[in-house]
Design a protein that fits this description.
By secondary structure, this protein is α/β, with parallel strands linked by helices. The protein is about 25% helix and about 20% strand. This is Thioredoxin reductase.
Length: about 450
């Protein structure tokens, strides 16, 4: 059992990192565990902290509130050094144990399967492996890649296209259910980030963040389920209206009521932009496509389809400058014609980015085959990578569909393949042991030929 301070923190994106950094400076006393969900202006702000899903009214002065929270967090952290403030069972959030070394030999644990990532792919893999009694270990990360444990769904409001939830479900809530099911079946979940792996030989070696200079832990197999994050433009007003009119997934969010029969905007000029714009014509009154250049990068057939669609207008040589709204929802987009220099406000109740995603593959870059966009390449129809024993699941290897349900499916595939590999290797070892007992001369090269 690990005792630690558990706080629900409501603050701005800027302040939360100050709070975390302050706590990490005294992490020998307490290891803070944070999850962060974007503030949603159209509803009471959401503070998502592991086993809690509580609604709060945001303070008026966010900067002052952030400073106050940072001070309070430090005070509670110091108190936690001498008093038990809050404790949870070992099946809840826990830190990976730090083992000592004796006689120069590592006493770090060796795991059969380590899962890196905590989205639908990672937790689905964990559920299957735990039920197979392989005792999987899942590292969900502490704001790894700037995203809370649970992945991109923690920044999504309503999820309406995941089977089993006819009335829809909030993103953080469904990830809480994923996590609870993983824990129920015996998955060990560590709220820490894996910062380094060595895939040069098996068992693989890996290190936790802030422990890179210590002895590595070992894993017979690793499942990479670190996901990918959408590229954002960081426009003025973007943070305020993210998930309140601005999205990076038309398929995920296009059907929600705030976009129906309203003017919508897609930014991008490739196939993804063409596909998303065409998809949005089912719901919006009209769809504008902003293209920085004077031509589309999309394939000829996709470009032709877009150009001929009666509900689509392509604004070539245009860029977005600012997202505007009423404080609750997006209402307009400030745009600029880069040739004439003219600026104007375009009515838009929805803004969809289709400018690509960034896969979280820095951890294994240079050690496993990736495509030109940085996604881990897998053998078609499998989760197998170019490194035996390393499997990839979810958006880290899928740049086409990027859906929660497809990620979950690939997590299942990765788990089954890891289980099969381990079973085959165990059987091979057993055969070798039996052969050595039956024919001892074969096991000792010095006696060969006698």
């Amino acid at each position: 059992m690990t005792n630690f301070l558990s706080l629900t923190i409501i603050t701005s994106r800027e302040s939360i990192f100050d709070v975390i950094q302050a706590c990490m400076n005294i992490r020998t006393s307490v290891r803070p565990i944070f999850s962060y969900a974007n503030r949603i202006p159209s509803r009471p702000s959401l503070a998502f902290s592991r086993t809690l899903f509580t609604s709060h009214r945001p303070p008026k002065n966010w900067k002052a509130a952030g400073a106050s929270i940072a001070t309070s967090t430090l005070a509670f952290a110091a108190l936690a050094n001498t008093h038990q403030i809050h404790s949870q069972a070992a099946t809840e959030d826990k830190m990976a144990p730090v083992a000592a070394s004796t006689n120069g030999q590592s006493t770090k644990p060796r795991h059969k399967v380590v899962i890196i990532g905590s989205g639908p792919a990672g937790h689905t893999a964990a559920i299957y492996l735990a039920r197979a009694e392989l005792k999987p270990v899942l590292f969900e990360g502490m704001l790894a890649n700037g995203i809370a444990a649970g992945g991109q769904l923690t920044t999504t409001t309503d999820v309406e296209n995941f089977p089993g939830f006819p009335d829809g479900i909030r993103g953080p809530e469904i990830m809480d259910k994923f996590r609870a099911q993983s824990v129920k079946h015996g998955t060990e979940i560590f709220t820490e980030t894996i910062s380094k792996v060595d895939l040069s030989s098996r068992p693989f070696k890996f290190w936790r963040e802030f422990s890179e200079d210590s002895e590595p832990e070992l894993a017979d197999t690793i499942i990479m389920a670190t996901g990918a994050s959408a590229r954002r433009m960081n426009l003025p007003g973007e943070e305020k209206y993210w998930q309140s009119g601005i999205s990076a997934c038309a398929v995920c969010d296009g059907a929600v009521p705030i976009f129906r029969n309203k003017p919508l905007v897609v930014i991008g000029g490739g196939d993804s932009a063409a596909e998303e714009a065409t998809y949005l014509t089912k719901y919006g009154s009209h769809v504008y496509v902003l293209v920085r250049r004077d031509e589309l990068r999309a394939s000829k057939i996709m470009a032709k389809r877009l150009l001929n669609h009666p509900k689509v207008t392509i604004l070539f040589n245009h860029v977005a400058l600012e997202a505007k709204g009423d404080g609750e929802l997006l209402k307009q987009l400030r745009i600029k014609d880069i040739k004439s220099g003219e600026e104007r406000d375009l009515d838009a109740n929805g803004l969809f980015y289709a400018i690509g995603h960034v896969p979280a593959t820095d951890l294994v870059k240079g050690q496993v085959d990736c495509d030109s966009d940085g996604y881990i390449t897998t053998v078609p129809g499998t989760a197998q990578t170019s490194v035996k024993g390393l499997f990839a699941a979810g958006d880290v290897q899928d740049k086409k569909y990027r859906q929660a349900v497809t990620s979950a499916g690939s997590g299942c595939i990765a788990a089954l393949e890891a289980e099969r590999l381990l079973a085959e290797e165990e059987e091979y070892e057993n055969i070798n042991e039996k052969d050595a007992q039956t024919h001892p001369n074969n096991a000792d090269p010095s006696k060969a030929g006698l």
